[in-house]
Amino acid sequence: MRAAILGLALVVGLMAAAWAWPGPRGDALPQPAAAQPATSGEFVVLTMALGERRQQVSVIDAKTKCMCVYHIDAETGEIHLKSVRNLRWDLELQEFNGTSPLPREIRTLVEQH
């Protein structure tokens, strides 16, 4: 059942990617500047144009906190899995690549007043 839901979410994302793709003559449809989310139960699917010839589809499983990123080639239709990552431990971080003032420094200042 889980595989069927993931498959459905992926198909929805791929359909959105295909819909937003330029036509065979290069006639481009308007492209959104940012990713467009679509949700289906526990899955979030984000699509984004990467130039004129590639589309990126990100599938996020909210239940398992796992993310997959795919790139789709417009000319060949090939789908490439680019990365898979469990976000569980990422979401446990309080700060990463932060610059001053860091969140804990701000919290300390607020708690002093």
Structure characterization notes:
- The protein is α+β, with helices and mostly antiparallel strands.
- The protein has one domain (2-112).
- Helix content is 25%, strand content 32%.
- The protein has 2 helices and 5 strands; from the N terminus they run αβββββα.
- The protein has helices spanning 2-19, 103-112, and strands at 36-40, 43-49, 54-61, 66-73, 79-86.
- A 5-stranded antiparallel β-sheet has the order 1-2-3-4-5, covered by helices on one side.
- A hairpin with a 2-residue loop joins β1 and β2.
- The longest helix is centred in the N-terminal third of the chain and has 18 residues, at 2-19.
- The chain is elongated, with a radius of gyration of 18 Å.
- The model is unreliable at 15-19 and 23-29 (pLDDT under 50).
Strand order of the largest sheet: 1-2-3-4-5
Count, helices:
2
The Rg value, from CA coordinates, equals 18 Å
User: What is the arithmetic mean of pLDDT?
Assistant: 77
Tell me the structural class. alpha+beta
Number of domains: 1
Order of helices and strands: HEEEEEH
Major β-sheet profile? 5 strands, antiparallel
Rough outline: elongated
Strand percentage: 25-35%
Number of strands: 5
Low-confidence residue ranges:
15-19, 23-29
CA-CA gap between termini: 53 Å
Determine the fraction of residues in helical runs and give it as a percent range.
10-25%
